[in-house]
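Quick note —
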Amino acid sequence: MSAIPCHVAFIMDGNGRWAVKRGLSRLKGHREGIKKAELVIDYCLRRGIEVVSLFVFSTENWKRAEREVAGLFKLASRYLDNIADFSKRGIRVVVSGDLSRLPEELVLKINKAETATVSNRVMTLNLCINYGGRAELTHAVNEIIRSGKNSVSEKELGEFMYQNLPDPDLIVRTGGQMRLSNFLLFQSAYSELVFSDTLWPDIDEKELDGFLNIYQHRNRNFGEVRDTGKTVDG
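Predicted structure written out below.
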């Protein structure tokens, strides 16, 4: 197994709880979460990780207070203004999710960032905004129907997802919950899963090193049984 995963995906959980514990607004927690996302992206760049996916906003997050949702979209919009910085670091930005429900300003920023960074090759940053794994599968099936195909292979199905990226080798969830929460359901079939009690804004490089260390010690055989030379009884 490669010592460094090609694709690492993060469920960035715990921003709101981090803020509430400190008597701050939940939106302040999300601001800190963006700062920590930048640290994580920089870390992954230095480790040679080629694809990073960040779960920014789920299809279920619309249930939150309108003020928090609007604030999250404003933060995402401002973050996408960093086109010059993305290009300087060789980062290609792509967005996975249903854009039809997002504010027009945010959609324009998404389109601009994707177009401006399309030729960058050092890393692909996949921002999952208004994303849900079930919604993505539904989207893929509808696209297949529109294409007129009567059947598709597993590989072809993958090509109808929001983005045609390598499956994540490692999925990390912070914040203490131990579930995928509708994240990358099709792509995570053989992903290594790591769950951390640390709230996302408290993640540091030492813990990131720990995630990679766990990954490097997992035996990824993808269903294959390797001949160890031992007998059945041994």
